[in-house]
Amino acid sequence: MSGKILIVDAVATNRIVLKVKLSAAHFEVHQASSGRAAMAALRDVQPDLIILGAALSDMSPAELIAALRARPDLAAAPIVALLPEDTGAARIAALRAGADDVITQPIDERIMLARLRGLLRQHLALQDMRLNAGPDRAVGFGEAQAMALRPGRITILGVQMTEAMALRTRLRSACRHQITALPTGGPITGAPGAPAADVFVLMFPAMSEDRALEVMAELRTSPEARHGRIVCLLPDEGRSLAASLLDMGASDVIAGSADLAELMLRLDRQIQRKQSVDHLRARLHDGLRAAMIDPLTGLYNRRFAMPFLKGLALAEEGAGPGFAVMLADLDHFKQINDRLGHAAGDRVLCHVADLLGSSLRECDLVARIGGEEFLIVMPGADGTEARRAADRLCRRIGEAGIALRGQPEPAHVTVSIGVAMGQPQPTERRAAAHVDALLEEADRALYRAKARGRNTVTVGARPAA
């Protein structure tokens, strides 16, 4: 099955015709003849997309759309209005009522299926993001859907710049969005480092089909446009291209002359979708960062460091140099907390974390894996290089003064470090066992450094098994 579609229409003929066409395209189709019947059907069916007829016996399309959107599980589901005739006024009314798109009778089956495939593709991609984000961040998408539309960025890409400039003038008179017009084939951000548009509007005049598809393919594969929406404007004679452009990833296609009010509704809808997805993506990124980063010091945490170390250990034997693993522990840290308070202790931890990060190579990993314990991994380092690096860390931390609020003199701390040397392992099992052995050896070396008076470095007596 390609997805579940619920058809809500009071006219039985419309439901039957649509069901035949959609079933032939491998969609799972469900039907309802009224708004109340549709809401009842939702107890048994979770549709991926809903098609609404223009006239229902018990409620208006706007009322039914509002009822559907009030359900958290359908807040972002695509809703398509089925119109009995193709007029600008009818399309505008449906879009203002909250429909994501419209299809009109007589139905152009190829374009209709392309529109539905495009809406479902975007919806399922969004569902995957919500699943990866987890329940808390998924709720954030519902919040984003309800947020007021913020001014966005629209870039018009025109094959003929006179038409693109004319459209820019029309749009600027009707909206608060930032509008830019650029020629196709050049940079799509206007200037190096400039932010990419939320929506790209491709203007295709009467031209060859091959050239239009080429321009669309170039934009779809541009890194700057990977998160942007694409709206294609076609002349009447280019209507046959609509299905191909939608299947190539266009978010919307408008064929023929577009009323300014309808065009703005469609562009606003695309910008709102983009802003909603950006909101969810940011929350997802924050969640991933929180899973990997120690919130106090900004260093990586154990959850990130262990897979990194195991990945470094997994390689063909003899494929490359070994690596160093260090465990560093602050000396007498409990006394700082007891004497000066936990706020001072946190300040000391942050200062030491900064010193560790700034004293190592860019390729090295530093992670906080315990209260005052840090893990350091140095890829490609031999024993001599690792020992020199550890000695340098001890010296820098011991010499640094840490200014603490309310204390007349800078505080000083020292660190003890245990070092173990690792070698690549050919299998995941051997790599995991090797990492465990390395950490045990580094911990024993750290214990010996503490026993020798602290503020010193001890290297493991033998390579980890």
Automatic annotation (TrEMBL):
Reactions listed under catalytic activity: 2 GTP = 3',3'-c-di-GMP + 2 diphosphate
Matches recorded under InterPro entries: CheY-like_superfamily (IPR011006), Diguanylate_Cyclase (IPR050469), GGDEF_dom (IPR000160), Nucleotide_cyclase (IPR029787), Rev_trsase/Diguanyl_cyclase (IPR043128), Sig_transdc_resp-reg_receiver (IPR001789)
Gene3D superfamilies the UniProt entry points to: 3.30.70.270, 3.40.50.2300
EC number(s) on file: 2.7.7.65
GO molecular function terms listed in the Swiss-Prot or TrEMBL record: diguanylate cyclase activity
Ranges where the Response regulatory domain occurs: 4-120
SUPFAM superfamilies given in the database record: CheY-like, Nucleotide cyclase
GO BP: any one term: negative regulation of bacterial-type flagellum-dependent cell motility
Pfam family, one: GGDEF
Domain called GGDEF: residue spans: 321-462
Top EC class of this enzyme: transferase
GO cellular component, one term: plasma membrane
Protein name: diguanylate cyclase
